[in-house]
What we know:
Layout (H helix, E strand, L loop, with lengths): L7 H10 L6 H22 L5 H8 L3 H14 L2 E6 L3 E6 L1 H38 L4 E5 L3 H10 L5 E6 L7 E2 L2 E4 L10 E4 L5 H11 L5 E3 L18
Parallel strand pairs: 3-4, 3-7, 4-6, 7-8
Antiparallel strand pairs: 1-2, 5-6
Helix pairs in contact: 1-2, 2-5, 3-4, 5-6
Amino acid sequence: MTFTTRTPYVHFVNDTIHKPVLNTAEETSSNEVAITLGMLSAIEENSALSQRSLAKELGIALGLANAYLKRCVKKGWIKVQQVPANRYAYYITPNGFSEKARLTGEYLSTSLEFFRHAREQSSTICVMAANRRLTRLALIGAGELAEITALTALDSPVEIVGVVDPSAAGSRLAGLRVVADIGELDPVEAVIITDMRAPQRTYEEWAERLSADQVLAVDMLKISRAAPPDVGDAT
């Protein structure tokens, strides 16, 4: 995976928050690690960040950023100092640097676990597609899961033609074109959902656009393939 030269935890905290894991307890722990580590890293780089800027940097709600900031202050990881113009500056304490180092190890452990599960399940999906003679595939949603799936597919009988993601159109991922619409790619026989932000909604959209048999997804996304109940007007 490609990281920028800047501290990666800030840039990838939002992806980590939305990263599928095995159960609710693990998901909560992973989110807490990602947000806290992202916050400490952001403040280390820029002590003049406002709470609003911090929330935007981490890709979380302002209220959530405020709650985590208060928690970090209470734990003694961040020190608050008032500066002119009624603003505040935030500094990481020695205890904060120690906690940041500990969280870095935990973050990397979680990321490696995610990579292992994603690689195993992506391999299973590719083999299943090949067994069904679906060998030309597109990925729906750019991101870490898409990159892992694309690389895993290189050792399988299937070919990933490209990635569909309007928000990242024009870029490349694992050597593949990222386009806004599947019509921009060569014809495919099926798609694999790799959108980690709204996988259920994305699956439903593509199941309507193609057919359910042509829309594949790894188990870790926890997608329900059952049709939602048709709730009519109350009588």
